[in-house]
C-alpha cells in the first residue's frame, strides 16, 4: 500500500469509528428545501399559552391529513419556544415540559411521522430562548449535545433563534449548529432566525436553508406589509435550498380580513417564502382553509425554478411583482397596499414574455381564464390583490377577453379618499377596459350613490361595441345634499356587458367611498383632541395622549422623551400615518418629536414628515433613540388634509416608538 492510499484508508477508519469528522463533511449543509418549506408552527397562534401542547401538535398533524393540507404540500409540523423546562437535567440535556408534553418529544415526533409528515423543533443560538417568562436553555455552547438529542427524537427541522446570544458572532453561532446537525447524520432543515440583523442573505447560503429577514410579524395589516416590503428587496439572494424567510403566516388568526389574508398569502407565495401556517387549524373558518389550500397559488410558491418574485414597479403602494416559472409562464401579483381602491396593470412584455398573438391569463383566486392582447390588469379594493399565471397561447381565442372595470373620485393626493363637502359636487370617472382581441358589446355603466345624493353622467354611459384594446370612460357629477352628515359613504359602480363567450350578460361591481368631512377645526388646538380621518400604525393602534403600547387601544404609558413627560400628543410606531381634516383653515403645526423612553434601543430609527395635502412641508430627517427631543414646526396653510407620517429609518421597524409630544395646530 503506498503512503497516500494508506493515509486515506486510515482516515476512513477513523471517520467510521466516529473519532474524526473531516471538515469537508461539515462544510456543506444537506441538500434539502429545494422548494420553500411548507408546514405549521404554533407560535403565531399560541405563543406560550397552555393550549400549546401535545394535543395541539397531534391535532394539527391529523388536520393536515384529513383536510387535504398534506396533499396540497404542507409537510412540517413544527413546535416553537416553551416546549422545554427552564433547566437542563443532570446530564445537561434539555427536558420537555412535563405538562405540555407528558410523553416527551419523541412520542410527538413519532406521531407526526406516522402520518407521513415531518417534525420540527426550536431553540436559540444563545444561552436562553426568547420567551418573556425567561426562556429555556439555548444551544450556545451545547450545539453538539442538543443536536444529538434532537436527532435521537427524530427531528427533521430546527428553527434557531437569536436571543441571549452573548454577543458571539452570528456566523460562528449558526455555523456551529449547522456542523452539529450535520454530524448527527440526520437530514435536518436548518432555519436561521436572527431577524436579518447580520444580513444572513450575504453569508448564510451554505449555513442554513432559510433565514429570517425581519423582526417578528404580528397579526395586522401594517406589520404584514412592512415585513413583505423589506423582504421584497432581497429577492436576488433566494433560491433552491436557501430562502428569504419573512416569518410565519398569520392567515386565520383573526387580526386581518380574509381579503387581507389573501394578499398576505399571495405575497408570501410569489416571494417564494416558506409557507408555515401560524393559525390553530382546529379553530379556523372554511375561508381560512380555502386560502391556505389554493393549489394554484401554492404551485407558484413551490415552482422548481425557485426564483423569488421581484417588484418590477411600485407606484405609491401599488406593487407589481413577477415570478418566472419553470415552464416559461410568469406569475404576476398586482398588490394594492393602500386604503383606497386602485386599478393596476402590467403588460406581457413587462413580465418578460416574448411577443405573441395573444396570452392566456389564469386568475389564481377567481379561478377564471381569459385572454389578453397584452395588458394584464385588475381593479383592486383597498388592501386587495390579484394573482395571475400568464402564458403565451396560440389558442387565446378560446377564452373570453380580459375586461377590467373601475370607478374613481377626484382626490387630493394618491391614495386619498375623495372628499366632498355638504352641498358640493365631486367628479367621478368610471371605466371599462377590454384588454382582449375580441370586442365586447352593449356596455352599460351605472353609479349608485347614497340616498339623497345625486349622480349624473355628463358623458355617455352606454357603448354598443367596445373593441379589443380599448377603454370606455364615463364622467359623473356626484352631488352631496346640504344636510349630509359627516362620514364615509359608499359610491358603487356597476357594469354590464356581453362577452363573445358568455350567453348571459356579464355584471361587474366596483365599490369606492366618498368622505363627507365634519366642520373644519378653529382656534389653537391640541391635535390629539381632534378626530382623525384615518390612521395606520406599525404596532397596535395610534394612541392619543399616551405613547404607543403595541397591542390594544389605551395600553401605552405617558409620553416621555429623554425623561420629560408630556400630557398631550400622539403615540405612533413606524410605519404610521394619521390624517386630519383641516379644511384649508389652519396655518401652523408644532410638536416635540422623539423616540419614547419606553422602548429606546440602538435600533430605534425613524423620520417624521408633515404633509399639507400632496405637499411635503416638514421632513425631520433621521431621528434615533439617543437624540434629544426636537422641535418641529410646519406650515400647513391651505391644507384640506394635514397628514402626519412616520417612516421607518431603513433598518427594520423594531423599537420605532415615535412620539408627537405637545402636538398643536393653529386654525
Ligand atoms: C422570537 C422569534 C419568534 C418566536 C419567539 C419565541 O421572537 O423571532 O419567531 O420564535 O422568539 O419566543
Structure description:
With 667 residues, this protein is of the alpha+beta class. The chain folds into three domains: 37-298, TIM Barrel; 312-516, Immunoglobulin-like, CATH 2.60.40; 524-666, Jelly Rolls. It contains 13 helices and 37 strands. The strands form eight sheets. Strands 7-6-5-4-3-2-1-8 form an eight-stranded parallel beta sheet. Helix 7 (143-153) packs across helix 8 (170-183). The longest helix is centred in the first third of the chain and has 14 residues, at 3-16. The protein starts with a helix and ends with a strand. The chain binds alpha-D-galactopyranose. Alpha-D-galactopyranose binds next to loops.
What labels describe this entry?
hydrolase, TIM Barrel, 8-stranded parallel β-sheet, 3 domains, 18% helix, 37 strands, A-galactase_NEW3, Immunoglobulin-like, 667 residues, alpha+beta, Glyco_hydro_b, alpha-galactosidase activity, binds alpha-D-galactopyranose
CATH topology of the largest domain: TIM Barrel
As a percent range, the share of strand residues is 25-35%
The strand order across the widest sheet is 7-6-5-4-3-2-1-8
Average of per-residue pLDDT values: 94
Helix and strand content put the structural class at alpha+beta
Signal peptide: 1-27
Keywords: Disulfide bond, Glycosidase, Hydrolase, Signal
GO biological process, one term: carbohydrate catabolic process
Domain Glycosyl hydrolase family 98 putative carbohydrate-binding module: 521-667
